[in-house]
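Could you help me review a protein record that somebody else here produced? Here is the record exactly as it was handed to me:
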Amino acid sequence: MSELERYYRVLELEPGATLEEVNQAYKDLVFVWHPDRIPLDNLRLQQKAQDKLKAINEARDKLRSFKAKYQVSQTSSPTQQKKPSQTQQPPKKSSDLSGKDYSRANLSNKDLSGRNLSYSNLNGANLSDTFMHKVNLRGADLSEANLFRANLLLADLREANLRNANLIGADLSGADLRGADFTGARIRSGDRLLVKLIGANLSGAIMPDGTIHA
C-alpha cells in the first residue's frame, strides 16, 4: 500500500476520492472521534481518540496538498511543461486574512485551517463546528464569539481576546494560549470542564474567573 492510499484508508475513502469527499469524511470522523464524546475517566479511549485525530488531520492535510499540486500540474499546457523558463506560478491563496473584519459573521462549519487571522476582528462571530487546525489567531478579537465544538488543534491564540466567548466542546489541544484573555468565557457545565486543553500552553492567560494562569 502506497502512502497516498494509506491516507485515503485513514479517512475511510477509496483512492481517487474528490476533495469534497475528503473534507466531508474528515468532518465526519472528527465528530465521531472528538474526545468530548468519550467519558473523561476512560483513559484508554481518550488516548485512542487523540491518536485517531492526529492521523485524521495528517491524512486530510496530505491529501489536500496532493490535490492542490495535481490541479496545478493539470492546468499546465504541454508547451509550458517543456519550457523550464516559463515557470508555472502557484495559485494565489487567500490564506493571509490578518486584520480582516469578520464581526458577527457566520463562519460555522467553514474550513479555516492554516489561515492567518492574526489581529482580525471576529467579535460575536459564529465559529461553531469550524475547522481551524493550526490557524493563526494571535491578537484576534474573539470576544462573544461562538466556538462551540470548534477544532483549534495547534492554533496560535497568543494574546487573543476570548472574553465571554462560548468554548463549550472546543478542542484547543496543543494550542498556544499564552496571554489570552478568557474572562467570562464559557468552558464548563457545572463542575465539568468541557474544553479540550491537552498540551495547551496557558502561561499568563487570564482565566474565566479573572485569575492569571501561572
Notes: The chain has two domains: 3-74, 96-214.
